[in-house]
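Entry 14. Structure prediction run on the chain below.
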Amino acid sequence: MEMLVLKLQLVSLKSFSPLLPLILNFGTKSVIGTEARGVYNAGQAEGMTFWAPNINIFRDPRWGRGQETAGEDPLVNSKYAVSYVRGLQGDSFEGGGLVGDRLQASACCKHFTAYDLDHWNGVDRFVFDANVTLQDLTDTYQPPFHSCIQQGRSSGIMCAYNRVNGVPNCADFNLLTKTARQKWNFNGYITSDCAAVAIIHDKQGYAKTPEDAVADTLKAGMDVECGDYLTKHAKSAVLQNKVPISQIDRALHNLFSIRIRLGLFDGNPTKLKYGTIGPNQVCSKQNLNIALEAARSGIVLLKNTASILPLPKSTNSIAVIGPNANSTSKVVLGNYFGVPCNLVTILQGFESYAKNSIYHPGCNDGIKCVSAEIDEAVEVAKKVDYVVLVMGLDQSQERESHDRDHLELPGKQQELIKSVAKASKKPVILVVLCEVKLDLK
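Output returned:
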């Protein structure tokens, strides 16, 4: 089923508008929350637990998953977490709590904690040990999760793969129980990241046996895992007296309490609080307009030489050149996405604007641009009134499990830009599609 795909967090937050997060995520007009429930009510979703938002601190601009976050600032991430969680779960900005503690959908703040590396310089997230001072942990990494739980009232959190000061996050009693549950009064469920329990034994060597890994995580306060390690080894861990039944009971209580709050045991769903949200509220005109406004307000204009923008309506010919000019999912949609309602590429947009639009990819191998047809692109640029270069990154360059090595444009993109700009009749319009920082010098 098609549904709204909003541009990633960093684009929305570049708008510097305090209203945008409210429009997207608060109250009865919550786009994310209503569409989530609408898809579920239409029978097109397997459940109502959503593993979002990602509120890790984006400290190193080369991190592949930084695009999923709200940036490097703890305060911005904290405010974003509250906004996202309340909107998804059905709360309101005006201060009213969840009606009857019922959930429109279940949010899950991730990845708890100090996770900002996937695979770099021979080290991956599965074995990474983040050495973090107490001050840095308190001032930088923990505030978004504290806000997510106390102000956002999230019903879920996810513990991260990595270790912090030697202890795996999913096996850290001080983190999951003493901090989240006891100090911050968290009353939801805690899940592991996918295969994180297995990694504690298989890759980190922190647990001596699979049963020890199960015991360490359940005793730390984790309730459920993404994976099958508990399915395989929880029974033997109980039989070996490594896990008391009380820990199993606690985990089940935390999990089923969320299902109850979602109304999954309350009979006919159409008669419940969120039962009337249907397909007509998915990809609605109002929601599409909000998505358009989010994209527009997140665009950053760095330079406008000779006031070349906006282009005159009398523009007759445009050359749209570059590996991202006609790109779809790899750059436009981001890391995780569903089927979008209406996807329009930059090329398609210009084709509807100018009578004569000429397209040239510039690079033979997409964003990597190891091989480029620079001479052909130059000849195209000479024929038209205006030239639009559409460069940047996509998910082949940065994503989950893949960090960048540098901040420059890939391959021959820079050479392509310089050559086309030199041949163009007027200053070229450079459009850079990316979610993160690039060195454009």
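The chain has two domains: 2-279, 301-433.
Filed with the rest of this week's runs.
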